[in-house]
Design brief:
Helix content is 67%, strand content 4%. By secondary structure, the chain is mainly alpha-helical. A hairpin with a 2-residue loop joins strand 5 and strand 6.
Length: 632
Amino acid sequence: MYAKVGDFEATIQMFYTIENPDIVSWNAVIAGCVLHEYHDLALELICTMKTAGVYPNMFTLSSALKACASMGIKELSRQLHSDLIKLCINSDSFVGVGLVDMYAKCDLMEDARKAFNLICEKDVVTWNAVISGYSQSGEDREALTLFIDMYRRGFEFNRTTLSSIVKATASLQEIKLCGQIHSLSVKSGLLSDIYVLNSLIDAYAKCTHVEDAERIFKECPYEDLVSFTSMITAYSQYGQGEEALKLFLRMQEVGIKPDGFVYSSLLNACANLSAYEQGKQVHVHILKLGFALDIFACNSLVNMYAKCGSIEDAGQAFRETPKRGIVSWSAMIGGLAQHGHGKEALKLFDEMINDDVLPNHVTLVSVLCACNHAGLVTEANSYFESMEKLYGIEPKEEHYACMIDILGRAGKLNEAMELIDKMPFQANGAVWGALLGAARIHKNVELGKQAAEMLLTIEPEKSGTHILLANIYASVGMWENVAKMRKLMKESKVKKEPGISWIEVQDKVFTFIVGDRNHYRSGEIYAKLDELSELINKAGYVPNVEIDLHDVERSEKEALLYHHSEKLAVAFGLIATPDGAPIRVKKNLRVCIDCHTAFKYICKIVSREIIIRDINRFHHFKDGSCSCGDYW
């Protein structure tokens, strides 16, 4: 009685007053332990019970199965099954479901399937146990196959079945199947169930169909923390950070209290927007509501500050993170690498190893990037060669791409080509892109042509290949070839991806494109650019018109360069933020050579730090130089 009403301490005290407890008393206290999730105590009491000469029956072992399932003790699972066989009760359907569930939660799906097959009279609970087991263990195809078998045999299904199957389709990113299960949930009348609705929102989002997820969310008759979390996460992951922040405000309006997962998604949204001020406000919410020790929120704080251009704040958040795991370390090492602090990143990696935290493949990509940004070729070779030997991690395409980029930038082009030839798989776009970038730096036309040809085969729709090759031709004065590249782009109808830059001012994110005149302070922005161009020209700046592939006069090319999206964003930052405040801009493409040169002059003239986050890394312009050392 005490166990069922929640007074577990009273249950234990009452039990220990019994002089010679019988099987009923033992079963009651063990079941109470399982009910209140004291699984280790439940198993300990079963051992004590045996020592006292009282032997377990079906009810005792049913509780033991649940305790073992919750703790995932593989060795004990088979011992319990053996005990059930000895008692001749393993064929009981109730016990059978317990066995399937236990084996599934102990990640022994082969044994779970055998136990499932031995059950003569299967019902929806039995099917759910094995289907959810396959789904939880990542065997999603098998989960779907079993569900189809269950459906064809005419068994009824419930919300638990559909939730498991929707999760499997989400993991497989099978959008067609997701739609079919959506239809099935409508026909069965289960679409009104909050668990099914939330599962569908999550599945559509993971299949990158955010609009479908949004439609279900809006049609949902009731909203809860899970549905808001799924939708905010979807917006955050697929480039709709502003929508994620708006939805959070609505969540607060309806009185739903957020958890660590929501804050983690919000911080990721701020990171993707480079919304530093809004990220700081989310941080304040985290502190106020007591999530400062939540590991998901802490890791996202490190990532957000690093991606918003404040590596100092990222470092502070990292130091305050309790029980730092591989995600925490990887986020900080990656942040240092992206900000050009290569040696500090490698030092932190050594600290991580000394702290007995083993790296994963993401950590090692960050380590190689750190070596790349710092030009540490020997160290990079050492880390790359020892990956498998020291950490059991076989190099993947991204590790090879990093190494080829490192060798290429250092002028070791032959070594880079040799490494491509030695790769155990076909080189992908990232690998050939790294080589093309190296060819641009070192003005190697032949290598550039070879890399570009491979890229045009693998990624024909990408305009960056044509532009980089044209820049290589322009750098060595091969203007006829530049003209041919322009012609090829027109004939193949390849469209150059437009450059877009973002800047946050007073909690609002502003977007700019080249020649943008839609901003409400457009007149002031262009006046500021005219003022800056005059000042930097006097200081020695010369527009790099060779990188502009438009077939127009030099004066027009210079005007186009002055009006690049990142220059517009910086000019707006200068007129809209307090004197001395850093200017943080994000760009969707690699920052161009001309803008890079111009910002070195501008930061010195205006005595401001300019932080540009491009597709590759961060550039901190200060006192006339850039943190990348013109090596990007």
